[in-house]
Amino acid sequence: MLKINQLHKSYPIGDSSLHVLKGIDLKVEEGEMVAIMGSSGSGKSTLLNIIGMLDEADSGDYILDGLPIKDLTEKKAAVYRNKFLGFIFQSFNLINYKNALENVALPLYYQGMKRKERQEKALFHLEKVGLADWAQHLPKELSGGQNQRVAIARALAANPKLLLADEPTGALDTKTSHEIMAFIQQLNDEGKTILMVTHEEDIASMCKRVVRLRDGVIMEDKKVEQVRAEQYV
Amino acid sequence: MFDLDLWREIFQSINKNRTRSLLSGFTVAFAILLFTILFGIANGLNNTFAEAFGTDATNSIVIFPGRTSKAHKGLQAGRRIQFKNEDYDYLLDEFGDKVQYITSKVHRNVNASYKNKKNNYQVRAVHPEYMFIENTQIKDGRYINQNDLNNNVKVAVIGKVVEDDLFLKTNPIGKYINLNGIQYKIVGVFTDDEGYNEENVIYTPLTTAQKLYGNNDYIDLMHLTFNPKLNYNQAISFGNNITKKMKDRFSVARSDQRAIRVQNMAEGTKAVGQMTFGLNVIILVIGFGTLIAGVVGISNIMIFIVKERTKEIGIRKALGASPRSIVSIILIESIIITAIAGYFGLLIGMGVLELVGPSLKTYFIKDPGVSTSLVIGATITLILAGAIAGYLPAKKASRIKPIVALRND
């Protein structure tokens, strides 16, 4: 599903540069649910952004679903992101002047789908996250948990191969975090491959595999016994 | 290709971000409003100016006889100078190539009557060419012609005021008007842009007047226009030349200012020309100034808008928006706002001019207004400027890495 080989990335800081990723090797199979952990500055978010084609690696190979991701034009990257990836952000990143339905429908708009079909599909995904009744509400009229569920619905709308979540529960309280995690687990049960960055141990323990980064290298990569989130809800 | 969805996106963005849209719209509307009003007022000043100098030929020279104030060549001071037909012929002979139109004139105030209606008017007995010098417009019938002069025909061309006074609603053409006891056949009615004082006049053939008023060939004054191809200096020296030759002809001292006076419009025309030119420069400066202010305003707002939308751009890019779609959504939005706001500015500006225009007459501003094409041109300039000003930051924003844009809070 996803194969990364000797990935390097550094950021210029003034005259010198900060070597953030120092040769990452990672392989993720379909249906996995991987937590990428590490303290801040360990390079976990950078790794996720490169996987999400939001950022580019300096060197190394990245193959997504058999497709080498390298030297992409902006246009091509946009198409790949739209086709292969779904994003869930810590701060939701919903467009504030669009209601829930329109936000969910946005990736479908960029796929060139017809308006009617788009709305039907968006509503279907909103229903799936339990927010069909909130379709016409703006993000500011929804709670944090609801907003994150809208964001998840949006990530699912384009039916991506890979879901990328950057601290998906970072802005939520424990109870809501568990609800969201329960939902993400359910998606994984249905077969979605999920890659998640977190620094919370209990959230990581709800994944099936934990990859620990430190100073730009993988320190530990192990499968874990998944803790189900439903029991806390 | 008409992309309904793109337009929906744009109108939603305009509609949902009202403050932003109104703010940028206001700048444009205000720039166009100022442009319209300032330009209109400047035009009004120009109109006042043009009107003050009337529609008479600006290249005219009038030659008046007077009395000598100095003794010369054995002739006493106080001698009366009398022009005659031969002086007219002399001018034509001497200066024919520089003269465009020329007429002799005899003035009389007459009692005019038609049936039981009476009034006082000025009669001007002239050559046919006077029509062009005075810029007389024939409303009905015809003007004096050469045939009238050759045969001393008793015909008259009356001004509109005379027509209104004496003939009420009947057609005066072919009727006979009584001027100091002599019947003249009316052959034409004229109007003059200068209004009442010039329409309160009756024209008759020169020779007819000369014959009736004294059976002589006396002339009160001569009025000519010089060839418009003469430049300012040539026109001035032409006028001086006439003065010199006429003074010599009548044995008048060169320094005698009263015996023969020559009034050359070219002297005033230059001042008028300079003033009009100055006014036009001011108008242009005002126009460009407001436009530039508007352009700067729009540029700032576009940069601000792109900055404000950076995060949204990041989200859209993460969801699969191509750089082109980002640029077009921002650009089209700015063009729509500028166009609509510009149109409102134009409407308001023209409305204001229409409303306050009449009351500005006391301030020497007449009929302030701007041509629609000019304002539309200004609006299009602003739209283009807005598009260019928006394009650069939009292009930059579309290239920004989504991760950087998303981090922007």
Automatic annotation (TrEMBL), chain A:
Keywords: ATP-binding, Nucleotide-binding, Translocase, Transport. Residues 2-233 form the ABC transporter domain. It comes from the Bacteria. This is ABC transporter ATP-binding protein. It comes from Flavivirga algicola. The keyword Metal-binding does not apply. Gene3D superfamilies: P-loop containing nucleotide triphosphate hydrolases. It holds the Pfam family ABC_tran. Belongs to the ABC transporter superfamily. InterPro entries: AAA+_ATPase, ABC_transporter-like_ATP-bd, MacB-like_ATP-bd, P-loop_NTPase. PROSITE patterns: ABC_TRANSPORTER_2 (PS50893). The keyword Nucleotide-binding applies. One of its GO terms (molecular function) is ATP binding.
TrEMBL record, chain B:
It is a multi-pass membrane protein. Residues 285-402 form the ABC3 transporter permease C-terminal domain. The lineage of its organism: Bacteria, Pseudomonadati, Bacteroidota, Flavobacteriia, Flavobacteriales. It comes from Flavivirga algicola. It holds the Pfam family FtsX. Belongs to the ABC-4 integral membrane protein family. The chain crosses the membrane at residues 21-42, 281-306, 326-353, 373-392. This is FtsX-like permease family protein. Keywords: Cell membrane, Membrane, Transmembrane, Transmembrane helix. It is found in: Cell membrane. Residues 21-232 form the MacB-like periplasmic core domain.
